Amino acid sequence: MALNVSDIGEKELIKYILSQSESIIADDTAITDFNDTNLISTCDMLIASRHFPEGMSYFQMGFKAVTVNVSDLAAMGADPLGFLLSIALPKDLDVNSFKQIIEGVIKACEYYNIPLIGGDTNEASEIIISGTALGLCDNPMMKNTAKEGDLICLSGDVGLVALGFNLNGQNIYTKRSLEPYARLKEGKIIKDAGATSATDITDGLASELYEMKPDCLGFMIYEEKLEISDEYKRLSADLGLNYLDLLLHVGEDFELLFTISEDNDLDIDYKVIGEVNTSDKVEITLINGDVREIENRGYNHYVS
User: What residues contact 58, with CB distance under 8 A and at least 6 apart?
Assistant: First the structure.
């Protein structure tokens, strides 16, 4: 019986594409030799019914389309070079809404200092925005090059967006879900400080940890070091949701997850959540001291 794409999911589809390509691709980006440095290239497609939560304005849609692409540049420690925008729109979308999308794109490009340099338009039954971000980087950070004894770190809080997807009203959680930001400056600082590996959190902390784990090494993180607030736990419980599931398995935080030697001079706010060991597992030590292997589960196109 023939397999459908939903039977294997996005990551297996990507593995097949990579197996057919001779390009060097790391994380969600391609790395190409270019004028004594490296050209970093990435693209992300956003579909209204799947990627834009209820309540998101047209301006916020445009801004997010840039953010998701720039976040991949941030994970490599790259300097932005240019952004290309391809957008498909329903033919009955009013022109003012289109203008708001483009205003969001332009403002995001200004915010990240990445010029809009081209693109394409087409017709579709719903809004589809596909962006391509280009950057330059001498020594890009790779995803699965952590070393034994490294610290596992985050550039900020995770799980806020996941909770925001499930809440109504004006609060920090819904704001983060509607207005995500890429950690572009932090990525360059982390790279210059000697981070041994890095990625951005798009599909959930658990999924990214498994993507980053080198062969024969393991990751141990600690619930206590994630600094989960009592309010977060209460709101999750009120919604009938498990707070650790939200934090580990949803994503779209666009914070940077990275590993770095304990002996470092990193000069930004960040939190240490664990360390690299030789267990060959991805585990979490819970508040009560129990150790649990983390399930390799996150957002997955065609399956989620």
Answer: 97, 98, 100, 101, 104
